[in-house]
Every structure is written in C-alpha cells, then in structure tokens.
Amino acid sequence: MLLAGIRVLDFGRYIAGPYCACLLADLGADVIRVEKIAGSEDRLLIPVAHNDGGAMFLQSNRNKRSLTLDPTNPDGARIVRDLVSEADVVVANAPRQILARMGIDYESLAQINPHIILTTIDAYDEPGPWSDRLGFDGVGQAICGSAFLSGDPDLPSKSYVPWVDFLAATIAAFGTMAALAERERTGRGQHVHSSLLASALTVANSALIEQSVIGPNRVATQNRSQVAAPADIFRTTDGWVIVQVVGDQLFRRWVGLMGEEQWLTDSRFASDQSRGDHRDTLCQAMAAWCSVRSTATALDELAAVGIPAGPVYSPQQVLDDPHIRATGLLKPTPYPETPSPPPLVDTPVSFSVTAAGIHHRPPRLGEHTDQILSELGYTTTAIARLRDEAVI
Model-level pTM? Predict the structure, then answer.
C-alpha cells in the first residue's frame, strides 16, 4: 500500500483531525488514535452501538489502532515522547495552547524527532482577532457566506451534513502527503496547517469574487439557482428530483425536451446569467413538466437527452439505491455491539495499481494499548503499573 511503513499519531477530535488520519490509514499508514482514558467525545456522538460506537466515530476511524493515555501525567508525557520518536506524522485539531500543554506543538515534536510532520487543523486560521476561538463545521458554513445564501432570505440555513469539516480533513491529508513527498527528497519535517475557515472560503470563493467585483448583493433563493436556469428541486408525482441546466448546450437540450423552441431566440434566456435572472419563468415550466411524471419517468426522460438530474433521497433510499449498491462504495463493516454491520463509505479515491480501502474495523476504546506499548519496549509489569496509576 502507498503509505505502508508510515506511522501516524492521531490526536484528533470529532471530524477534521480523525478523518484526515483516516484517509492516511486507508492508504496503508499505521495510524494510532491516542485518546483520553474515558474516550473522546466523538465516540458516543450519534450512537449506534451499545457501548462506544457513535456513527461519526465509526465513519472516521476505520483502519486505526486505539491507545488510551493521559498525556498530562509525567509518565504519559514520556509515552508520548516514545511514540513521537518513532512516528512520521502527528495529526491534531486542538487549539494551540492545548497542543503545547500536551507537548505536541511543532517545536516540542521537532526536538524529539526532527523529521516529524505535524498536521494541524483549527477553526479560524491566523493571524486575526479570532485565531484562538473555537469553532465547529456550522460556524465555517456561516462565516463563509454559505448559510446566508442557502435556505430562505428570512432564515439562513446550514447544510445538515458537515461538509466544512470533511473538506478541511481532506485538504489536510493532501498537505500531509505533499509534506511526506518533500521529506522523501530532503529529509526535512515540517508543520502542515489547514483550517475550517480556509476550507469554507475555498468553496465559497466564486460568490465572494462576484460580490467584490460587481456587488450584486445576492440573498438566498432556497434551492433555486441564481446564475442559471432551470436549476432547482422539483416535485414529481411520487417524490422530488433535482435538475441542473447550466450552459448553452444543456439549455438547448432542455428547450428541445420542453418543445419550446421560441425560448432559444428570447433575449431573456440568452445566457446563463440572464436565464438565472429570469429563473422563475423557466423553473415554473420545469415544475409543471415534473408534476405529471413519476421520479423514475422524469429521470429517464432527462437522462435520454443528456440533462444532469437526480432523485432527492432519504437516508434509507440512499441505502436501497441499486446504483449505489452496485458501486460497492458502502462497505458493511462489523463492529461489536451494533445490531447490524455499519455501512462505511470506502476510500473516496481508487488507484489502478495501488491498494487502498477499509481493511479493518474501527477500534474499541483502548483496544490496542497493550500491543502498542509492548512495541515501544514496555514490559507487561510496566504496562500494568501504568494502568493501575491511571496513566493509560
């Protein structure tokens, strides 16, 4: 596997840090998740197991080993140093002050292992007056303008799924891979840093460019696009579909489907932006067309003329969809004390030669503590003492 032989220490919490390390584990890195003795907060968030299995934890921690540890204890700090001396990467998404308190800030790590790569993800980036504040995914969605432009003008709306966290994790994993490639050439370690703010601004950048350059002062229009049309979510006889007609070629196809050839010479619909400005007319026509068709019929007819469209699924419909099942992206992965194997999404990138993917389930809390400490040279007696003293 691509990262076989690379050891990663994952001090992450919730999503951004753990999923960054998860992607590295999918590529073959030996990832050790270092947790508080009582377990990290994300272990029980969205609980699906009877003990320590939350859905968020299961999603972001496959392919890892678990070690529980109190790094503020002198013996715990010694174990951290032992781990760092043999590691290649440390991943953390805690505030700078906490990293320093745990001895895993870059200066401390580099003194132990000058080749170490530290990957950190924080909320707001620096410098700036908010650099030391805490933040979650929803704050990133709000502060980049996304929530303001989503939903209703009178009620800003964030996405249900935490896309900012997962994007920040993916960008951080990308940066970590680049740092590993650099170290392969030069032998130098370094500090890789990403943030929820930088990730959210990256996705929202086109809206910010438009506002800065021409100042349209857009407000939310629910699911209806303002820069092309028809692009919205439409009701069918038995559900909903999303249709996205963007670009002149797709618009010509859509006009042919509607049988309204005169729209091709109507100045209101001459470009994406002009169609977006007159979106209500086009979306009303699309809504009427969808309203007398089933979801399956509407999607088949749209696909036949090459117009991007898809069903609006509930989570259960996602699980039942024949295409999603055929891709094999959802991997039933047995985990203790869950009523059925949780369907974990496989590595979201594939290689024609290199192996990657889910090769073992997420770990139980502290499942590999003894094994990892034995690898560091701790005896059975020493490990028992550390446990008795609540170091591990």
Answer: 0.94
Closest by Cα among 181, 174, 12 to 88? 181
Q: Any alpha helices (H) in 187-217, and if so which ranges?
A: 196-214
Q: How confident is the model over 97-137, as pLDDT tens digits?
A: 889 988 999 999 999 999 999 999 999 988 888 888 889 99
Query: How would you class 360 by CB atoms within 10 Å of its CB: exposed for 0-12, middle for 13-18, buried for 19 or more?
Result: exposed
Question: Cβ contacts of residue 91 below 8 Å, gap of 6+?
Answer: 8, 9, 10, 11, 12, 17, 20, 21, 24, 119, 120, 172, 176
- Percentage above 90 pLDDT, the chain: 91
Structure tokens at 350: 């594939």
DSSP state string for 285-337: HHHHHHHTS-HHHHHHHHHHTT--EEE---HHHHHH-HHHHHHT-EEE---TT
- With beta carbons less than 8 A apart as the criterion, state whether 223 and 232 touch: yes
